Amino acid sequence: MTQRALDSSGEQTPGPSRPAMIDAGAELDPVHPMDLPPSAHDATGLTTAEVAERVARGEVNDVPVRSSRSVAEIVRANVFTRFNLIIGVLWVIMLFVAPIQDSLFGFVIVANTGIGIIQEWRAKKTLDSLAVIGEAKPTVRRDGKAAEVSTHEIVLGDVIELGPGDKVVVDGTVAEADSLEVDESLLTGEADPVLKRPGDPVMSGSFVVAGGGAFTATKVGREAYAAQLAEEASRFTLVHSELRSGISTILKYVTWMMVPTAIGLIISQLVVKDNNFKDSVARTVGGIVPMIPEGLVLLTSVAFAIGVVRLGRKQCLVQELPAIEGLARVDVVCLDKTGTLTEGGMDITEVRALGGSDEAYVHQVLRSLGSSDPRPNASLQAIIDAYPAGDKDGQGDKDGKGEEASWTVTDALPFSSARKYSGAAFTETDGTPSAWLLGAPDVLLADGDATLTEIEHLNEQGLRVLLLARVPSGDLDAPDAAQDAVPTALVVLEQRLRPDAAETLKYFAQQNVATKVISGDNAVSVGAVAGKLGLAGAENTLDARKMPTDPDAMATAMEQNAVFGRVTPQQKRDMVAALQSRGHTVAMTGDGVNDVLALKDADIGVSMGSGSEATRAVAQIVLLNNSFATLPSVVAEGRRVIGNITRVATLFLTKTVYSVLLAILVVCTQVEYPFLPRHLTLLSTLTIGVPAFFLALAPNKERAQPHFVRRVMRYAIPSGVIAATATFTTYLVARHHYAGPGALEAETSAATLTLFLTSMWVLAIIARPYTWWRIALVAAMGLGFLIVLVVPWLQDFFALKLVGTTMPWTAVGIAVAAAALLEFSWRVVGRRFGA
């Protein structure tokens, strides 16, 4: 299992897993655990037989893993909707009182619902498969071995190992602790890490920020403290989205308008007008059905589902669907440097002895420090690679007992993001005690120290510098442990830049998304790295230790600078909050435990797949391929979804507005409703249904704008009013023009022509800016209607037949006037409110 470890400069980077208490797969003494005292039993864990007994008793961590909705839930959510109920009742009525062509709207709804179910099922499969890939696998001890198991395989009494970045997956009691610090902020709100000792309780949902250890599971499954919260928070959902809540608001308004209008229409057609009963019912249903924007909810779900599938192919796990939309609204991206702009690995370029220190002795100290830490981070791993145990100054160790074998570790201090250094104490070969710290030079040295000037020049080159300092033997964990540190050597490390980072930063700049690099490393060094990658404003660096604490002043500093160094985990959280206070939508990327608080509070949290379990748990988006370059794809997908749904929502709501207004006009004038259901099914399919599907899936790079409902309604209301007015005008003119048998069908045909042409112009406006396929789409819809008008059997099927030339051309003329009014109204709205 790849662990995450904080390096000595404040960043968190990937390091190989080396459990503190027991190596994975290592054999222990074959003593039966139940014959041992509790401490020894903890060392070996449960036996296979004991695990089987607990599973049989149901003492297993059976909390469902993060998953999408079940197939039953998907079917239920797509079938049992308020509008499907209304349409279903109307459909059944039409099947009994009218020809099959007047019941086509019901078959369309069945097809749409089927498409929605299939698309969400595909998204479910994608999400579930990605969730398995990204699932954390804790290390437990069984039969004297350490092995990785799935979270749901943990049983009561299991001994689970912990290291930096590991999430506590069930409740338990600490069995072993090596400077174990646990952050419980996600549960208690308390930001300060808690030092844990054997016997102390640990709660599920907390995570390790420093040190290592092991704990015994005392509560598993739904009894665990955070189980219910975790299950609910990790559920695949479409809620908490401005787009979804906006559509719900629209549907609520539509219901309010639809109910009284439909009642009036029913009374008008069935009571006031003395028509044929079946024909009256058909025309009443024809007036009610188009009021319902039934395809809007479906199309939104389909667009989100297809977004999940598309991103899944790029190894991007979207843990909450609104994250796709949220990232489209982001205008500030806060990046963690290590693991995001740079790759995890580092190389030592130089070890520079200070104050006349002996180089061979310095190398021995570094070699011993590397051997003292069972969980080396990236910085220490680079030191281990350069000075491996058993290798004296690169010459190897012939007898297998190098000089370092005589250096005995007497104390060890794991790295903490609060301290920004680690350390160890030794008894050297000749019995001399010595204690050493390795970490951030500007933390270990006093301000004004001459060594800092030398370090500054190295930082300006984008190099990472660690200081090896000797301290008096004593308590390494004391707050003033670094007070009398004597600089001994500089360890200069070179970070590997991600090859795709520069292009990704360029993309965000082109999209007017501000990029802020927030790092625990030295600000000048981080700025140099950002500068190499072409980050605009990389020269504007700020040491976070000089950051104002006032939220407003902090927000100003955040807006004026692009690179921040020596940032503590709590400061990262405060920085995100400061930006949000200025109205910014903030995305935070990270992979280490020092990023968890900020990831949780950001509008969108993005974690690397190789990140710590804690970061993956709180992030809405996990980049399983660890590639920062995937982010533009997520942004583009979000913009495609929200921009296109805003466009097509205007189409659907225009239909709702003109349907309601037509019904009101019919009630007020006491005339027959001009349309049968078949007419509006044909119009809806050609001017809304088919084109909306293609437009909703088209590329769209516009940054998402707020106030979805207002933006849609300010276009839909005037468009609907113009369409209804033009259509009813044509209908009234036709009523005076035609007389005798077949007059109503001729009047309906003329009104249908006007409504189709007006609706087509709305579609033509929404399809802009034109591309070849958009023009072809609009033309194809027009051609479809023309075919219906000229093919005899289609004329009969849809009851559409233009009679004479005067009235059809009048209908066209009225539609042209309506198109001119549409253009004028859209331009006025665009100038007044913005596009």
From TrEMBL:
Signal peptide: none annotated. InterPro entries: ATPase_P-typ_cyto_dom_N (IPR023299), ATPase_P-typ_P_site (IPR018303), ATPase_P-typ_TM_dom_sf (IPR023298), ATPase_P-typ_transduc_dom_A_sf (IPR008250), ATPase_P-type_domA (IPR059000), HAD-like_sf (IPR036412), HAD_sf (IPR023214), P_typ_ATPase (IPR001757). Residues 1-23 are annotated as: Disordered. SUPFAM superfamilies: Calcium ATPase, transduction domain A, Calcium ATPase, transmembrane domain M, HAD-like. This is Cation-translocating P-type ATPase. Its main location: membrane. It is a multi-pass membrane protein.
